[in-house]
């Protein structure tokens, strides 16, 4: 039972992280760090 609860918590966190990345990409924001940006988003090097 404990393993199932941990699985549900980890799956929930992973799902929320994935949804956040998807939502940012739809808004035209970078979905990762600017160091790995391909230049097709709003990242600017400092």
List the helices and strands and how they pair.
Elements lengths: L1 H25 L20
Summary keywords:
46 residues; mainly alpha; 0% strand
Notes on the structure:
The chain starts with a helix and ends in a 20-residue tail after the last helix. The relative contact order is 0.11. The mean pLDDT is 79. The protein has 1 helix and no strands. The chain is mainly α and 46 residues long. 54% of the residues lie in helices and 0% in strands.
- Biggest sheet layout: none
Q: Helix and strand string, N-terminal first? A: H
Poorly predicted regions are none
SSE-based structural type:
mainly alpha
Shape: elongated
User: Helicity level, as a percent range?
Assistant: 40-55%
DSSP helix count? Answer: 1
Strand content: under 5%
Q: Kindly state the number of beta strands.
A: 0
Oligomerization state: single chain
Based on CA atoms alone, the radius of gyration comes out at: 15 Å
Measured distance between first and last alpha carbons: 49 Å
Mean pLDDT across residues: 79
In short:
The chain has 46 residues and is an all-alpha fold. The chain has one helix at residues 2-26. The model has no long low-confidence stretch (mean pLDDT 79).
